[in-house]
Structure formats: C-alpha cells, structure tokens
Amino acid sequence: RRRVQNQSPVPAALAKFAPSEVNLTHSDEWNLKTFTGHLKVEIDQAPVRLKCVAVVTSKGKGCDRRFDWEIKSSIPIVGNMIESFIAKDLTQTLKKEEAIIAGLLEAYAPA
C-alpha cells in the first residue's frame, strides 16, 4: 500500500471521482517458468479496477517487457473518461519508473 500523486492534472469533470492524491494497493503474482505475471492495482475509494498481464521475454543480452492493462470503471457516463485519465496517468508513471530502473541497472551493472 502506498500513497501516490497523479502524474496528470485531474480534469474538472473527474475531480469528484479522482482526487489528486490516492492510496493504492499493488499486488502481483509471477510464474517464473513462463516469465508471466498477473498484476492488480486497487485504488481506495475509486470506482475503477486495474488488472494486467505482464510478460518478460529474452532479447539478446537483455529482455523485453510487455504489459497488457485492463482498466475498468463502474461509473456510467463518465466511466470512459475515468479509464482514459487513468491510462494516461499510468503511462506517465511507468515511463518514470522505467527511467529509474534503467539508471539503477546502469549504475550497478558489472564493468
């Protein structure tokens, strides 16, 4: 469980459903034989659920990661807008995390 701030400004129409800062719980389960993970993100007091299938494949001296996210909101009418907002915010968050991981790998890679 962690508290996170949205990476994107919350549109006025969604302010009631998407505060600028939220508590979320992230869980994942991995099959180490198939390099496949099932991720789930729950956002406290938000009418939305996020699920993901992640696959890691070998590529040369490294690997590729593929994330297939499913984002669903239970709110009629504005649900699509909520899903789009979360998808955009999630994309920005994952890009930041990828940059951090790349920096760590570079800093700790054997010479």
Core attributes:
111 residues, alpha+beta, 5-stranded antiparallel sheet
Description:
The protein is built from 1 helix and 5 strands, in the order E-E-E-E-E-H. By secondary structure, the protein is of the alpha+beta class. Strands 1-2-3-4-5 form a 5-stranded antiparallel sheet. Strand 2 and strand 3 (36-43) form a beta hairpin. The longest helix is centred in the C-terminal third of the chain and has 30 residues, at 79-108. The model has no long low-confidence stretch (mean pLDDT 83).
Give the helix/strand layout.
Blueprint: E1 2-5, E2 21-31, E3 36-43, E4 48-59, E5 62-73, H1 79-108
Antiparallel strand pairs: 1-2, 2-3, 3-4, 4-5
Elements, N to C (H/E): EEEEEH
Helical content (DSSP H or I, runs of 4+): 25-40%
Radius of gyration: 16 Å
Provide mean pLDDT, rounded.
83
Contiguous runs where pLDDT drops below 50 for at least 5 residues: none
Tell me how many strands there are.
5
Task: Give a quick rundown of the structure.
The protein is α+β, with helices and mostly antiparallel strands. It is built from 1 helix and 5 strands, in the order βββββα.
